[in-house]
Amino acid sequence: KLSSFANPRSTQRWAADLLVYRQQAYLPRTAELADNAVILVRRQNGAEKTYTIPWDKTGTPLTKLGPLPNFRLNRGNRRSVAPSGTADESKPPQPEELAPDAPPTPAYLKPWLSLQRHKVTRPVRTLRGFSQRNPIYRLPAGFTQRLGRLNSDYFYSGAYTAGEKRIGFIRIGTFDPVDFSLLGLPLRQFEQEIAYMKANTDVLVVDITRNGGGYACYAEELEKYLIAKPFTGIGVEIRPNLDIIRDFELSVQDAQDYGEEWEARLMAAITGDVKTAYSENRGRTGPLPLCSLRLDQEPIRDRNGAVLAYDKPILLLTDEFSTSAADAFAATLQDAHAATLFGFRTAGAGGNTVTTSAGFYSEGSAAVTQMLTVRPTMQNVPGFGATRYIENTGVRPDIEYDYQTLDNLLDNGASFVDAFTKAAAALVPSAN
User: Which residues contact 46 (CB under 8 A, 6 or more apart)?
Assistant: First the structure.
């Protein structure tokens, strides 16, 4: 219950972190820990062994809350101190903070800048590969690496062959690779890589396993390079407050002053939906576009109108830590029938979160979901029934495969790589 997650598997693995790592920012009574942790391990042969591990404590213990007289921690060794710190509470910079060479953001989209960050912000130090660029498994012999050697590479990519099938590979480890103002850099790199894959491969494997999320609109821009036809983007149901209403009202005025007439009308209609939801008890809007004024999206095109998106089969790798913006990314590709999903059910973290102080003297903060992510099509999900929400339900793969096996642990994921390689090769149409 201290590490609950939408997906039961995610919860179990997230909670396992607490066996040997506690952070006071999330568990205020960490300072009360004994000097040692005692862990009982069952070995492969069934035998059990107990390990005693000393806690290494650093930071400042939380034993008192300012002037409040009723809160005391009375247990534990007072000389011991626990790790201290705060969650990553960074947010996308506002338009006036963007670098001078950043692509301009239309004025009427300002409300979305504060809503589009879909990311797990809790620090994770023991889950190998979480939000990291490089994969945790070893790719097969014959794999020719392209990206992933330089610090300036935002993706890990390459190509290899299986029989006569040319398989491309690209890993998107995070949807938060750089500051919001610099997202044009990874987008250009992704465009170049997709151009190569389109010309030199028969099928593309895209890996978003252990992707902790990030900027949802950046994820949607990447989708435009992977879906070669018009598609429906992710919608969001917002539970508004007065600050959100104010931002939308200002954006209507901006659209009237600087945009096209149709943009002003659409923005006014969206603002009306936000105001109606605010007037209702616990009201939410209907599904609204997150990154533009329309849910309908187009693939990326060149100046002559030619589609640049990858137009061959795609296998998308997911797992229980494909989180938040990665949830939405998987749902969009699946609903557009642009990719076959391979792996495990995604995390089911289906909305943005906002963090605020839990009280002036509390030394704490609280995070709440401000909106729900709504996928394009209705899904019949075991245990949840018919739903379009990603929150808690996650995204189910078309081909289920559990990476968490002994074979994959001992052999750097060789069984996993072999399985997704066969699945990718099977997507390539047979030659006549």
Answer: none
For 168, the 3-state DSSP assignment is strand
- Give the global pTM: 0.85
Parallel, antiparallel, or unpaired for β 203-207 and 340-343? unpaired
Which residue from 45, 51, 55 is spatially nearest to 18, judged by alpha carbons? 55
Is residue 137 within 8 Å of residue 412, measured between CB atoms? yes
* Residues 324, 327, 331, 332, CA torsion sign: positive
Query: How crowded is the C-beta side of 13, counted as CA atoms within 13 Å?
Result: 18
Tens of pLDDT along 211-266? 999 998 999 999 999 999 999 998 999 999 898 899 899 989 988 998 889 889 99
Strand 156-162, strand 165-171: pairing: antiparallel
Tell me how far CA of residue 298 lies from CA of 263, 290, 307, 327, in angstroms.
17, 15, 9, 20
β-partners of residue 158 are 145, 169
Phi-psi region of 305 (alpha: psi -120 to 50; beta: other; left: phi over 0): left
User: What contacts 279, CB < 8 A, 6 or more positions away?
Assistant: none
Can you read off the two tokens belonging to residue 327? 């949830």
Determine if residue 394 is left, alpha or beta; phi over 0 gives left, psi from -120 to 50 gives alpha, anything else beta. Answer: left
Strands (E), 163-246: 165-171, 203-207, 213-215, 231-232, 235-238
d(CA 172, CA 174): 6
- The predicted-structure confidence for 47-64, as pLDDT tens digits, reads as follows 999 999 999 988 888 877
Strands 231-232 and 296-297: what pairing?
antiparallel
Picking from 413, 280, 394, the residue whose alpha carbon sits closest to that of residue 10 is 394
Residues shown for the chain: 432
What are the angstrom distances between the C-alpha of 121 and each of 175, 230, 325?
13, 32, 12
The 144-147 sheet, strands edge to edge? 144-147, 156-162, 165-171, 203-207, 314-318, 340-343, 399-400
Structure tokens at 124: 């994770």
